[in-house]
Amino acid sequence: MKDELENYDFWELSQAAGCLANQACSISARHIKDGMLRLQFNREVAGVAKHIVSEVSAGRMSASEGMRALKEENDHLLKQSSEIAMKGAGLIAGVLQMVTGGSICYFSAGSLCAVAGLPLMAHGANNTYENARNLMSGRKDSEGYVRKGYQVLANVAGGSDREGNVAYGVVDIGLSIYTMRRLVLKPGAWRLFRYVRDDYAKAYMTMGRKALVFEIGVDVMTGALIYVEPEN
Length: 232
Hints:
- The protein contains 8 helices and 2 strands; from the N terminus they run ααααααββαα.
- The chain is an all-alpha fold.
- The chain has 2 domains: 2-81; 86-227, no CATH class.
- The protein has a two-stranded antiparallel sheet with strand order 1-2.
- The longest helix has 45 residues, at 63-107.
C-alpha cells in the first residue's frame, strides 16, 4: 500500500512538473518574440521542474514539498505574465490617450483643448512613459512628471503622495469616460452643407467590441490600482 501511494504521489508530481513546463511555453509564446530567448526561458523553467522532481526522487524533499515548490513556481509565472499584460495594456492605452487628446484639440478647433485634449495628452504621455519604463526595467513603481505633479498638489493641500496617486487615477478614469461619451461622427455620415446632430453618436456606440472591452478593462485595472494604493 505504501509503495502504491508513493508511486501515485510521484506520478502526480511528474504531472505537475509537466504542467509547469507547458505553462512556461504558453507564457513565453505570448510575451517573448525572440525565438532563442523563448527557447532559453522554456529550458530554464523545465530545468527547475526537473530539479524539483529529482530532489523528491532522491529523498531530499517530500512529495508534498515538491508539489508546493512547483505550485509556487507556477504562481510566480502567472503573476509575471499578468504584470506584463497589465503594463502592455497601460502602454497601449497611454498612446491612445495621446492620439485621442490630439484629435479632440484638432476637431474642436481648440475649444475643447484645455478641458479635455491637453489633459488627455498629458495623462497619455505619462502612462506611456511609466508603463514603457516598467516593462524595460522590470519595475512596478515608475512615476512620470504628471503623476508627481498630482503628488505635489496633494502635499500642498495637506495630503500625501497616496492622495495624489488616487486623484491621478480618478482623473484618468474620468477622462476615459469622457472620451467614450463624447459625440463623434457616425461611420458613413454624409455631409451636404454641414453635419447635423443626427450625424453624430456617442463614441462608445461606434467602437468595436474588442476596443470597448479593452477600454473598460483598462478602467477597471486603474480602479483596482486606486483601491490597493498603499498608505505612505
